[in-house]
Amino acid sequence: MNRESILLLGGGGFIGSALAKRLATQGMRVHVVSRHIVISPDPNVIMHTGDLSDLSLLKKILPECATVVHLASISTPGSSATHPTQELNNIQPVLQLLEKLQDQADTHLIFLSSGGTVYGNPAQNPVAESAALAPLSFYGAGKVAIEGFLSSFRNKSHAVTILRPSNTYGPEQNINQGFGLIRTVLQHILQGTPIEIWGDGENVRDFIYIEDVVDAIVLVINTPDDSNTYNVGCGQGHTINEVLTIAQQICGLPLQINYHVARGVDVREVVLDFSHIRTTLGWHPHVSLDDGIQRTWQWLKRT
Question: Is the entire prediction scored with pTM above 0.70?
């Protein structure tokens, strides 16, 4: 087994693509499994098109990789709001993966959960990892269920790190309905189309730039015996209305905003306390919200 070989499950998505590029530039051999056909120009990135439930594919790749990063999800808080069975398609592949990893005691598993949904409306903000998990959405409940199985797997002496990133944004992020506020806002500003906001816009979120999230994952990859749960956020909250205002100021263009009745799946306020990962691994965010939106806007205008 080669410590330089890493498997990214769901690695064709936003975070996975950015992570694969970073790891490849560091000379690591990266296997990427994605349901979508993605062509990588880097010879260190080996693409595998397939579903995570494809056991024959996992059986082929897993023995080569001492680190597995699970980034895949087929749902969003909105998409599974009325279809809770969607979450089974996220949970079952993880259980199949754990079965395969039982025979690979030295493999480090890193799972990206959701800092924005697993806590629900926490009693205190910023919220620490030790706070109660009380998701409002089926999406968040699915993440909590997976974390439960991973905790059991840890108890069998397997190294499992759980990362709970906040709302991640930045260049190369695709439009995904019901997901990715900043990317959606900038797209509407670029096109001059109105944006639909659920609620009064006073919901508070913690936003984290993509490169800061990748920094955190790389630190964990470089700590193969780590078996902690970490929040990955900025530790500072902004209302949706504040984000809308900042985006319009940076872009220098107006945005029409249509407000609708709030949805029950939307958390009112959640801000992440990242002191655990700062103390343990030395990680902290570098990119401010204003700077991150500016960088994303400049990228979007070039596409």
Answer: yes
